[in-house]
Amino acid sequence: MPGTPGEPYGYELGCVAKSIASGKGFSSPLPFFETGPTAWLSPVFPYIVAGIFKIWGIYTVKSRVAIQVFDCVCSAVTVFPIYAVSKRSFGAGTAAGAAWLWVVLPDATHVPIADLWEASLAALFFALLFWATTAIRGEGSTAKWAGYGGLWALGALINTSLVSVLPFFLAWLAWQERKERRPWLRPVAVASLVFVVGMAPWTMRNDEALGKFVPVRSNFGLEFWLGNNPQALEVNAFQLHPFVNRAEAEDYRSMGEVDYMRAKQHAALAFIHSHPGAASYFILRRVGDNWFAVSDRVGSVLSSGSVYLKGYFIFLARAQFLSRALRDYVARVSAGVLSHARAGAVPVSDGADSCGTGRQSDFPRDAWRWRARRPRVISGLNLVNCEARVGVDGCGRLRIGNVAILHDILQMILVGKRQ
After folding, report:
1. Residues contacting residue 212 through CB under 8 Å, at least 6 positions apart
2. Which of 203, 218, 233 is the last residue of a domain?
3. Which of 261, 292, 323 is the last residue of a domain?
4. pTM
5. Which of 6, 27, 44, 262 has the fewest CB atoms lying closer than 10 Å?
6. Residue 363 pLDDT level (bands cut at 50, 70, 90)
7. Is 103 domain-assigned?
């Protein structure tokens, strides 16, 4: 909902966008004072928000609504790549079901309004990259492969976590081309080269502004430390984040961004080395939080959150348990029955799992789970994905939140019809 006029929003994103709109460049991610150039965030979305600030004003209600409308449009448009990927890989029936599942998915309307971040845009690009990966297979045009690499570069500059699936997708494409006895080295090399070239200007900017090689973002050390320190509360120690902790913000300003992030990374590694039991416990809690979609901060939302949030998170957790029970039942009654995935179907579960698990060493957020749900909506309505040669049980890794129960109920119904 729109806040008080002039009240800051968007956390570090809002601060950087404010600096850009004020003519001070990509800088100052903290609200307390100006700190100079930064590589705290990927650049694309802050510049989009800065453009909105330039048109409708910095931290105005109109700008907030414009950002939410933009996120809603991104979420709505995502239905097209979902349909296209599903149709190409699994047929028109699955495509229609996946598209309608996306339409009624609660997160498709909740996240774009509640999360003033790049989550909706990044997830749209994740779906587009899936689509492009299925479409580029078998193409002999060098220009199209170059465009594919450029699309990945743009995705990385929207959200760096998308790059986590690039090696898997390129390996899959190379395997598909080689299996069909088509040239594979040249097109994959072209896509990789264009990807690197597309990233180069921002990397060079970071090197000049910060004096260190930073491909896209610089804040890994801080995020790593927030999830691995003596004051971490089950999932993270957000109370120590320099955005809300002035003492940490002072350290960030006095040390500089690069040295501050390096110090935090060393502190996190030292904590893991000296407290292996606690670090392992934190990781397990984050794994559970990520896959069961309980909350961003397990210890706080169930005690202080609204009734809606409590019910929402409890529903997601219960759906996960029911999903697993249904999956086990289907696996027992139909083991080995399902082996009808279309040849060459894109590796949906690899993409979803790789993108969804990248933040368990620090701390997960709903927005990160959100980006991985596009391919899960697709895979949730097919009978098996391209890897599921061991039957239904091979799909078990896809379970997440409220998609999971629909996934397995539909599988059970459709398996029954096939039998």
Report:
1. 206, 218, 258
2. 218
3. 292
4. 0.75
5. 6
6. low
7. no
